[in-house]
């Protein structure tokens, strides 16, 4: 019998000053976690129980999908990362260290290199493929700004899986199996989520979906259409371009106008009394080793991920002020495409720049802009492409309906890696004809500890957490009004034992606190059901059962308590899973 007086559940009445969002506040106030250092947390007993339940769901669905569990080292030798080129590419988020012999290592943020080296050394024939291997393990990323409690940590728990196939069709099957498994996992843990098309980032590969838990504090913007099932990360969402009608008449010759200290789009619209869509923003980027001027309409924002993917680049960043002046003779805010040397900089443009027939650009001279500029006449564009962020109201690329935005927290991702790592590391197999072929890989991750925060973020009220049944630390909170009254204490213990024999997990609050204090803690901790044991248990043979989710109270006879509790839990559990053993 788990008695609350003996458990480490240090609840707090005050909201911690550094906690910004609901899940962070409640994890601390409900005594589930404590911060050791920035982005590094200790999981206390209640959190561990929920963590184990999420892990159990993950394992069940991964095993059901045919994956095999293993456990790889967190400490990875640098030479593996050098083989794939990621030692330098991954950047400062990679936690690097040296052993006593000054050999470089990294604490694993992910395990593509380790798993590829393992499979490369152990499997060499098509007869042993396909295979899908996964682990649940602590990961390390030196985040520049850890925040939001368990949402963005430097040390966190992750499930990562890696599939190896002989054909693209095999990868497609493994990918779909993982996609379906993730859908079941996040449904079972009680999340409101969407699977969205996304960019692969530093991991690489094509064919990527992020599983996003929808909540207002989400760091990612999701573009979606209510018509159909389209959803995409803002970095990935395709913008549909339909040319607008070209106005009649010739555009007047370009003219230089004095615009002192007018550097931003907002300032320019006010100074010249024009709409932002008539302005062409000129942005100069260093894309790997070349300078590129990117043109976007004044009312649009450049999508740097699309720019990076257009060039298949490793590094993309804004050019320095010195580079701007050397190339254009002007500082930021006054640069433009007219008169630039195409040998020194490539000029590309978002496709909607084609609709600017009489535009405004920087004059490449401090405090001056050019008006009546016509693309094609006054400057040349080497290529047009989809380079801007999608906006609300844009057309959905699938249905043509209007795009809407939502916020989300990434809790899972699935990648089609292809041969990116197997080719770099020599992970090959002999096919049916004895020819050596690179293995075709997939990668599939779930933020296990982040999922706890996402569940709380979606399931709380002013009084505390409201746990979904499947991942609640316990199912039932048994609270005697006055534990010093022998009849109440005995009845509470008997109820606890009876429910436990029925497979129901019970937290028994045996603390000698006032009833109001215990009820507040119960609401804060947020177990699905609360059973209040008063004098009526002995006098009338009844207890009060309160449903945390909707606040409903039920007076239940003691001899009907077990079936009633089971029925109530089943009624608020949406998964349809068998919850209790007999």
TrEMBL record:
It catalyses: tRNA(Pro) + L-proline + ATP = L-prolyl-tRNA(Pro) + AMP + diphosphate. It is an enzyme of class 6 (ligase). It is found in: Cytoplasm. Residues 53-468 form the Aminoacyl-transfer RNA synthetases class-II family profile domain. One of its GO terms (cellular component) is cytosol. Keywords: Aminoacyl-tRNA synthetase, ATP-binding, Cytoplasm, Ligase, Nucleotide-binding, Protein biosynthesis. Its main location: cytoplasm. Its EC number is 6.1.1.15. One of its GO terms (molecular function) is ATP binding. InterPro entries: aa-tRNA-synt_IIb (IPR002314), aa-tRNA-synth_II (IPR006195), aa-tRNA-synth_II/BPL/LPL (IPR045864), Anticodon-bd (IPR004154), Anticodon-bd_dom_sf (IPR036621), Pro-tRNA-ligase_IIa (IPR002316), Pro-tRNA-synth_IIa_bac-type (IPR004500), Pro-tRNA-Synthase_IIa_type1 (IPR023717). The keyword Iron-sulfur does not apply. GO terms for biological process: prolyl-tRNA aminoacylation. Homodimer. Catalyzes the attachment of proline to tRNA(Pro) in a two-step reaction: proline is first activated by ATP to form Pro-AMP and then transferred to the acceptor end of tRNA(Pro). As ProRS can inadvertently accommodate and process non-cognate amino acids such as alanine and cysteine, to avoid such errors it has two additional distinct editing activities against alanine. One activity is designated as 'pretransfer' editing and involves the tRNA(Pro)-independent hydrolysis of activated Ala-AMP. Consists of three domains: the N-terminal catalytic domain, the editing domain and the C-terminal anticodon-binding domain. Belongs to the class-II aminoacyl-tRNA synthetase family. ProS type 1 subfamily. This is Proline--tRNA ligase. It comes from Brevibacillus panacihumi W25. The gene is proS.
